[in-house]
Amino acid sequence: MLNHRSRSIVVLVVAFVMITGTGIARAERQPKPAPFDVILRHGLVFDGTGTAPFRGDIGVRGGFIAEVGDLTGHRANAEFDVHGLYVAPGFINFHDHSEADALPTAANMLMQGVTTVVVNPDGRGPLDVVAQLADYASRPLALNVAASIGFNSVWESVIGQDNRLATPDEITRMQGIIVDNLRRGAWNVSAGLDYKPGYYATAAEVVSVIQPAAPWRTSFTNHDRLTPESGYSSRVGMAETISIAEQAGLHPEITHMKVQGHEQGSAAEALSALSAATARGHYAAADVYPYLAGQTGLGSLIIPAWAQEGGRDAMLLRFKDPEQRSRIAHEAELTMQARFGGERGVFVLDIEQPLTEVMQTMGVSAGEAIIRLLERADMHAILSFGREDDLQRILQHPAAAIACDCGASLRSAIHPRYYGTFPRVLGHYVREQQLMSWQDALRKMTGLPATMLGMVNRGYLMAGMAADITVFDPQTIIDRSSYERPIESPEGVRFVWVNGQLAVKDGKLAGTAAGHTLLRSAFMPMRPESRGTRRLMGGGALKLVSTTKDAPDRLRISFRASQRDVDHHARGRLTLRNGDGRVISQSDILGLLQIADGWGSFTTHAVVGQVGRALTVVVDAANPLAPGVKNVYLVQDDAVTYAGTLDE
Fold this sequence. Notes:
Elements: E1 2-3, E2 36-45, E3 54-61, E4 64-69, E5 76-81, E6 86-89, E7 91-93, H1 107-110, E8 114-119, H2 129-137, E9 144-147, E10 149-150, H3 151-159, H4 168-184, E11 189-191, H5 203-210, E12 219-222, H6 234-248, E13 251-254, H7 267-279, E14 285-288, E15 293-297, H8 305-308, H9 312-320, H10 322-340, E16 346-348, E17 353-354, H11 355-362, H12 366-376, E18 380-384, H13 388-396, E19 400-402, H14 417-432, H15 438-445, H16 447-453, E20 469-472, E21 493-498, E22 501-505, E23 508-509, E24 518-519, E25 534-544, E26 554-563, E27 571-577, E28 583-587, E29 590-596, E30 599-608, E31 611-620, E32 631-636, E33 639-646
Parallel strand pairs: 2-5, 2-6, 7-8, 8-9, 10-11, 11-12, 12-13, 13-14, 14-19
Antiparallel strand pairs: 1-24, 2-3, 3-4, 6-20, 15-18, 16-17, 16-18, 20-21, 21-22, 22-23, 25-26, 25-33, 26-27, 27-28, 29-30, 30-31, 32-33
Helix pairs in contact: 3-4, 4-5, 5-6, 6-7, 10-12, 11-12, 14-15
């Protein structure tokens, strides 16, 4: 995975190696690497695949996992005895609302065990994600940050707040913004069609705008649009998300999946639509948080769409017209009843009061109270929805990742999910309710979101993966935040490493800021998790494509790797030779082998140029942007270093 200083080098990429330090040097002998930077000893290791855990040690070097297993007799600069604790990959928050001023510390996220976040959900965010991430990286970062390109922001930048059809020229302009951001490193296309002005785009227009993203093999992740015309049907909204993605050639992803209103109790039917889409060839997934209430703008989902057209100032003018005001209040009450259980399901965050108390104080109806509050300021609310049995079904679905719909924040008037999501799943739903196994819940926080994004060297605890690691106490992990006390820190997360640097020590922030900004390349497709017996082998000639100290101009790569579901790592060998055929690096320490249609990758750790380095090899014969090409690329120092093609 590339950070913001990298260059998106060609879209033909098919092999990916991430290493740190100086270039690949000519060497005839393979010396032993230096001691590990860190060894975690005697923990119960959950590798992120969902397979059974095992007792073992983890050695970290240069920000990456160098070896997993029995490291008795090996030395490290720092050692941690984590006996009795569970060791997992750092959690990945797929749907993240982090605030820039909170990212240097990200205390509420690190204390949950989160090490990587994906910002710009619900179709929001800047139009230039590379500039956004560069701005983040100009300050300390406590965790890793990736970014989506937001459909709503793109739509608003061209169409504004008006409810009208887009012209062909406007569609073309929006397509260009989407593709340019994907080419430069955005991970997917996010949307919030329930929010204005994205709400005003027809499904056909959304398809037209995002269709050029199809060759990037990424996802369309959407906050589903619930309309009065559909009776505020969650299932109709989810069906629209799936249909848009399929027509555009993208993978659908239902974000913060829930079943609302009169359809409560039908989660099984909603989830079957995901499975049906996957069966049709469009891998479909979801994310979910473990609460029965959400947080958003007070008026965003309550004030009718026609009243919001033109933006806030236009809405306030409509409030001043008695006839329109009465209609708005009435329709707002119908919406609250259909979606949130009426006025009892609304809590106004900015004044920390239930709407029912506001109504009593003001002596007015629910709709009128909402209008009066919005006339004061653009407030936020917690909105109740759903049933516990629906939530549990969604949490259990194999393609539903855990995501908090929160982010790094310094605010106090927030939803408890900002502090509690991941520990709540592990403490309440795994340990107490036994709704799922530890390994499956941790898979939903690590390996599953990594593959949903297209990441190749995060989300798993194996040789060659980035050293993002979360260690917690299974007996004590639990959320402590509540709607009344939302900023209470959770219990149980003992240690967190971000890129090999200690971020949480003994349950307290360590004060380090080792996060990276992460960019996606075209060779990193969204894909299902790899299952079954799988193999990858080949070889080819590589050319140096970037300036790297002491690196030979040409290399030859050969590799073979195989893995079964019961294996905790792949088996095989990677060999690199210089131009005259001498071996300059060879490794039998393989990590995870991942396979998808026409695509494969594996991670490893090797001594290269007398330095221990993490490597990832990706073979891609299915890139729509490079049809018929089988290239091999090695990426070094966060940039593509070698490129070539596989032998026929």
